[in-house]
Specification:
The complex is a heterodimer. Chain A is of the alpha/beta class. Chain A contains twelve helices and ten strands. Chain A starts with a helix and ends in a 6-residue tail after the last helix. Chain B is of the alpha/beta class. The longest helix of chain B is centred in the last third of the chain and has 16 residues, at about 220-235. The chains are: A alpha/beta, B alpha/beta.
Chain lengths: ~375, ~250
């Protein structure tokens, strides 16, 4: 693992700087637990992966959200972040590539974030779990490679790039002036001892995964599944009136904006297995402080690695019409050049059409045809 | 017991003492939890490792009106500690603990799930042939190691030890008249330095005096004999000059 980081430009990465965990989730909790006391603040992106906010609160800390700029590819705004630093701020979290937006932060933004941490003596917590899932040759920069004078904890693991989330195999790499965090690391080790160790079968998986042939390369290249799924989902979603989705540069998600007012009674509550998650699920504060009023739009995250299970809110009549037309067009296209992605898209659009028509009709959505339709979807989409 | 008491923890079979609690004691503990509305937390990780017919009773079988959380796993009985595979079984009137269980579920979600390879191991481990039975029977490794450790420790002057009924630990007491130990932590560190033998001091288990240490009986018989001889040599250096049965020079 030290060699993995050395190969990414961090020359002095050492095995002693790496701690293994039962997934990154466990490590996030422990890292924050060792760091935070009551009243301590942590700068966390909004939208974020909500474990960061939840774990911060559980550890007695206060999450302070910095708003990522939707108009600027969902990148963080360094000025906005720095304005939120207080004397209680202990750490700056960045999630890159980003869940839920799919953004990949450019070098110049990352350098500014590192500099904020440097000047305000913050620990930099770099959640890079999606680090090898980037598209169109977008550059992924490991935050730890940008400084040797900022204590940085880099999180990664086998769950995404190597697709073995069930193994519970993650790690943190601690870089920078570790001597300034000696007692912190001592506390972290104490917490780790309490749960013994990272599970051993998955430790064996690490070396196998990190070395040799890297299958993720095929999946993210044009023609690869993840690439095609991202591209298709992005295109189709943006064709729906009122939906605005930025094209994700990395990770497995599109974060949509729904630009029109909707009627709550027509909302379907996402099930626990739903792949579309409503905006309230993501941390979102501080819009008032930046002077921006939240629009009536909602944000929905659609993972491109799975099928959608719920329709989107919005202007149902026009959406139904468009969806119907697109569905017919897709079917025609599929007949000529069937690919799995296109076939699935066609079925999905037909389902959306049926569902929207049903919603506009009797008022009670008939779920039976929807369930049958989902069951008919090609597997592994 | 106070009005702030929320739970009663019972570690049976016991680490570090190797005790196995009899039914009457367990029933009395269950009753305390019942009458004071406590959550009963039964740590039963060593549950199948018993010797000479000692009976390990699962506390959850003693009452259905006490909210009980029973802990166990693959680490000891099935000797796969590295898999990190454990579970808790919730029994009793769960309707009285709905919000607690909701919170527990939330905490569980924070870390996603237990690792899946370890989950696969559970069914294999719990079913079919149980190799632990051979290990704890007379002639089995754990049984023999337990016997040798007990016999050798008792031979050391001033060492008082109860034979374990379960688990894999002995928790001997060093007679303070013969071994005036001020800090049991310093004692074990010095033992480690001098004899390269590692035991755990009693206070590491939140025990109340400095006269105890825990010996693990997992090493092979030959290693245990050699280690206890080293402990004996080390203890010779701790004996007070006025020890009744004569003393030997240290080192």
């Amino acid at each position: 693992m030290a060699q993995y980081y050395q190969a990414r430009g961090i020359e002095n990465a050492d095995p002693d700087d790496i701690y293994l965990g039962n997934g990154v989730s466990e490590l996030i909790t422990m890292v924050l637990q060792a760091l935070l006391g009551p009243g301590d603040e942590v700068l966390i992106p909004a939208p974020d992966y909500p474990l960061w906010t939840g774990a911060t609160k559980l550890c007695g800390g206060t999450p302070v959200h910095y708003i990522c700029d939707e108009e600027n590819r969902w990148w963080p705004d360094p000025e906005e972040i720095e304005a939120k630093v207080t004397e209680n701020t202990k750490a700056l979290v960045l999630i890159n590539p980003n869940n839920p937006t799919g953004a990949v932060y450019p070098r110049h933004i990352l350098e500014k974030l590192v500099d904020i941490a440097r000047r305000h003596h913050l620990m930099l917590l770099a959640d890079e779990i999606y680090e090898n899932i980037t598209f169109d040759d977008v550059e992924m920069v490991n935050a730890a490679s940008l400084s040797d004078d900022v204590v940085t904890i880099t999180f990664s693991g086998l769950s995404k790039t190597w697709r073995v989330a069930g193994f519970r195999s993650g790690w943190i790499y601690v870089s920078g002036p570790k001597q300034r965090a000696a007692s912190y690391l001592e506390g972290l080790e104490l917490l780790m001892n309490m749960r013994m160790c990272a599970n051993v079968p998955a430790q064996h998986a690490l070396q196998a995964a990190l070395g040799g042939y890297q299958s993720i390369g095929e999946l993210i290249a044009p023609g690869g599944r993840l690439y095609e799924q991202r591209t298709t989902a992005h295109r189709l979603l943006n064709e729906i009136p009122g939906v605005d989705a930025h094209r994700a540069d990395g990770a497995l998600y599109l974060f949509l904006a729904w630009m029109q007012r909707c009627t709550p009674s027509k909302m379907m509550r996402p099930s626990s297995s739903s792949c579309c998650v409503p905006r309230r699920f993501w941390s979102r504060t501080g819009a008032r402080s930046t002077g921006r009023t939240p629009s009536t739009s909602g944000w929905w995250r659609c993972p491109v690695s799975r099928t959608w299970r719920r329709p989107l809110r919005g202007s149902l009549t026009s959406s139904a019409t468009i969806a119907r037309e697109r569905s017919r067009a897709s079917e025609a296209a599929c007949a000529q050049a069937p690919g799995r992605g296109q076939a699935a898209s066609a079925v999905l659009l037909q389902l959306l059409t049926d569902l929207l028509e049903a919603l506009l009709g009797a008022g009670e959505p008939p779920l039976a045809p929807v369930r049958q339709g989902f069951a008919a979807l090609p597997q592994r989409q | 017991m106070t009005d702030r008491t929320k739970a009663l923890v019972v570690i049976n079979l016991n680490n570090p003492t190797g005790a196995v609690y009899p039914k009457e004691i367990l029933e009395a503990l269950v009753d305390i939890a019942r009458r004071h509305n406590l959550i009963l937390m039964a740590d039963e990780i060593y549950e199948k490792i018993t010797y000479d017919g000692a009976e390990a009773i699962n506390m959850c079988t003693l009452a259905d009106d006490v909210f009980t959380i029973t802990y166990s796993g693959l680490s000891k009985t099935w000797r796969a500690a590295g898999f990190r595979s454990g579970w808790c079984y919730i029994s009793g009137p769960q309707y009285r603990a709905k919000s607690y269980l909701e919170g527990l579920q939330l905490m569980s979600n924070l870390r996603m799930c237990p690792n899946v390879p370890g989950q696969h191991a559970i069914q294999t481990a719990l079913g079919g042939y149980q190799s632990i039975d051979d290990l704890i029977a007379p002639g089995g490794l754990l049984h023999e190691q337990r016997q040798v450790a007990y016999d050798r420790l008792r031979e050391i002057e001033g060492v008082q030890v109860e034979q374990m009924d379960g688990a894999m630990y002995l928790f001997p007491r060093l007679d303070p008249e013969i071994y005036p130990i001020e800090s049991d932590e310093a004692f074990v560190i010095e033992l480690l330095r001098q004899q390269k033998i590692l035991v755990s001091h009693g206070r590491a288990f939140n025990w109340i005096d400095d006269q105890h240490f825990r010996l693990v009986t997992l090493p092979a018989v030959a290693e245990l004999e050699s280690a206890i001889e080293g402990i004996s040599d080390f203890l010779a250096g701790y004996r007070t000059p006025s020890a009744p049965h004569g003393c030997s020079e240290a080192g």
